[in-house]
Amino acid sequence: MKRITQILLALLFVSFQSQSQSGSIPQLKSYEDLSTKLYTSKVIEISGKSKKELQNTFKNWAATAFNNLREVMVSETENQIVLVYITEVPVVQKLVGIKVTDNWPLYVRFVAEFKDDKIRVSLYDDGNSLYAYFPPRSVYISNYQTPPNTKKELTKRMGSWYLAHTVWQQKCDLVIYSVENGILNPTSISPKRKEDF
After folding, report:
1. Which of 114, 150, 173, 183 could crosslink 51 through cysteines, CB 3.0-4.6 Å?
2. Alpha-carbon span 136 to 130, nearest angstrom
3. Burial of 120 (C-beta count, 10 Å sphere; 0-12/13-18/19+)
4. What's the confidence (pLDDT) of residue 181?
5. Terminal CA-to-CA distance of the chain, rounded, Å?
């Protein structure tokens, strides 16, 4: 699982680098519900699994996907688990003629809902604290929907926020892929065990 995640992150970084170097401006994907900041959701169906079994499988995936599950899990009921985590997005800006790369910590709210035989996972833009003069968690990356007119504008303030938004979406897509793979193939997330422990 960690190897797959490393490969996917490497591909994401290469994609980010090629987007920032190529002549094209990356396109954002549409939100399922922009008014609620819902970026995407997916229903994963697994026949013959109870709600409780699916919750345990999800927790096993989350425990391997995050450094400390207790730090990111903000709510757990019999039907739902909510995680809030930070994903770092590289941002390239020109400041006084010099290109500067910074990593922005952007929040994601991850809601997993459980029924017998299926899970629905949903990812939301959960607000961010980018600068000291904004109230905490009041800046939403989903507000930056307008693409710049030229590639050169991607390194200006509004263009760099737009580009950060596209990378944030790509990282969310990787999480959806990872959870689906972890739920459908639970042995892929288990560490390899030696028989002679």
Report:
1. 114
2. 8
3. middle
4. 92
5. 22
Name the E strands within 54-152: 73-76, 80-95, 98-115, 118-125
Locus of tokens 């991850």: 110
Beta strands in the chain (DSSP E): 38-45, 73-76, 80-95, 98-115, 118-125
Distance CA 152, CA 157 (A): 11
163 contact partners, CB below 8 Å, separation of at least 6: 19, 20, 26, 91, 92, 154
Residue 20: is its pLDDT beyond 50? Answer: no
Average pLDDT (169-174) is 95
CA dist 117 → 77, 121, 142, 179, 187 (Å): 18, 14, 32, 15, 18
Whole-prediction pTM value? 0.78
Q: What is the largest CA-CA distance in the chain?
A: 62
What is the SS3 assignment for 70?
A: helix
Do 183 and 43 contact (CB within 8 A), yes or no? no
At 3 the three-state DSSP class reads helix
Report which of 155, 172, 171 is spatially closest to residue 163, judged by C-alpha positions. 155
Taking CA 91 as the corner, what is the angle to CA 158 and CA 167, rounded to the nearest 5 degrees? 90
75 — pLDDT class (breaks 50, 70, 90)? very high
